[in-house]
Amino acid sequence: MSFTDHARITSQLNLSNILSQMPVGMAIYRGPDYIVELANETMLRYWNVQAADMLEKPVLDVFMRRGEAQSDLKELKQLLDDVYNHGNRVAIDEAVAEVPVEGRLSTCYFSLTFEALRDEQNRINGIMCLANDITQAVQARKKLEEAEKKKSLALDAGRFGTWDFDLLNNTVELDARCRELFDMPPHAHIDPLDFWKYINEKDHAKVTVAVGAALDPLQRADYTLEYRVGSEEGKIRWIRNKGKGYFNGDVPYRFVGTAQDVTEEHKLRDEQAKLLRLVDNSIELMSLLGTNNINSYINKAGMELLGFDTMEQVLVTPISELHLKEDFEKVSAEVITSLQSKGSWSGPMNVKHLKSGEIIPVYNNTVRIDDPVTGEVLAFGAVMRDMRQELAAQQSLQESEKKYRQLSNELEERVDKRTVDLRNANYNLSRSNRDLEQFAYIASHDLQEPLRKIRICSDLIMQNSNDPELLTKYLSKINNASERMSSLVRELLNYSRLSSPQLTFEPVDLSAILANAMTDCELVIKEKDAAIHLSPLPVIHGASSQLYQLFLNLLTNALKFSETMPVISISCSEVYGRDISGSELIDPEMKYMHLIFKDNGIGFSKDLFEKIFTVFTRGTSDPKFTGTGIGLAVCKKVVENHRGYIDVESEVGKGTSFHIYLLL
Fold first, then answer.
1. Fewer CB under 10 Å: which end of the chain, C or N?
2. Residue 613 sits in the same domain as residue 565
3. Domain span at residue 245?
4. Helices 544-560/510-520 angle, 10° precision
């Protein structure tokens, strides 16, 4: 053997050793049976097999013994046959495989390339397969897609357009959002065939196929399609349509669906496709570093990344010039040490551009390449991925998530406020309905009674017009009935005015309001020699005129409905809404004034507790205690107008206690 032949064999052996230990998966299949001639350690790790179980065996037989699905094996054979028989190069994007990582199977993504190998006569005699792990790039893209999806949901709140084709009558209905998406006039009549004017001509064919499949009675396919609308450059919009055809037997009669603007998604998808194409073409830095700390090879992408112009420049530049001082210290202390002890290292690091001095973050996967015979270290193989775009994507993801959280919080606050408004509106509606029922009862019963007496007495007067004594008697009854009716109407008018929405709330000193009410009752207080015990009352936000009516009615009732010397106690304390039960108006987080208005009057029975605040409900039927039965209804309405609650405790012959809760 000549020295030249020996050198060539040695060179081929070294190259084989280098390739077999590179961090990119590589395998060579020979002959029409696709015998595995070479599979480097990376590829064996991807396959999760030992070299002895794979080398010198037909690759399809090995995969069959591993239990791969027949459909997958058939597809793989067709692919290999196409490359071997016709010399076609085949590339597969984002192939998914389960790969052992740290002792566990993990889902990984690869870009695969199958190239035909030829002998010296240019005849195909094998296939080379390259597998490039792009898992992190795909995961970053998927995270970004998910973030954009959340952002779109938060911002657009599901802004879909809807369309509805009546196929029998040849008409179409479009909502305003759909017209906006297709840039249609907002109110113009649109025929089904008019749609073609708005769909980009380049997409007419695929729209025709998709609609035909959806309306074909044999297929009845779901209609899911993205196409462009508009034709003017710069104003083209991508629309995602989802719809369904409805059939009467085999005859389609209706075609309905939604349209959504996905222009931004397409822009993002286009950018991601560009990135993936670059990855598929090995844009990562790939290098061979000698034991003298000088690279013996850097690929084109790596040269551009680091600022090299020629390979000669690579061969004379030590790696210390490709890092800042502190970064090179990390390379020496951590990376080289790990390669010497473990044979591999992976992790983030920084490199420096030779011309601009720019510091570029990369993710480095490096393995030690040893001579399989002597064990001598031949070189270090590295694959470095430029992380600048990935870090920018992570920052965009964080910003999108932050905006999404902010929007979610704002939406939640709006929903909570709307819920409170609806609850208040429902309560006010319920209260209005109750008031209407009460007024209906009044009109049909309480106001009818004085009128009935007037009519009866009027008839009796006409029958006894010659009897002066009877005339005087009946005229007196008519007068009394008229006065009662007038009193009822007056009290009802005052009660109805409490429902006016034009309330002015201002700081109100309850002690001063109570003092005014006591002044107005001064004569009765002296006449009955009443004893009134007071506690200091706070200043609250309210309507002073209504709060005066509240105190005046409570004080008047306490003085009126007593058979002994009235003893009235008015006390006050503070409570939280969570400690108050019985009213949906109470806010559990707010603080309330608890006012207790207690007397020693005649009291009333428990069966009146729920009715006592209803219009014309009186606590006693004893005729010596006069009244219209409206006073406590006024009290309840005043308290509810102030978003409060009033309750009562009473016992016949022992007195009554009113509990009033008003916001502080």
1. N
2. yes
3. 144-270
4. 50
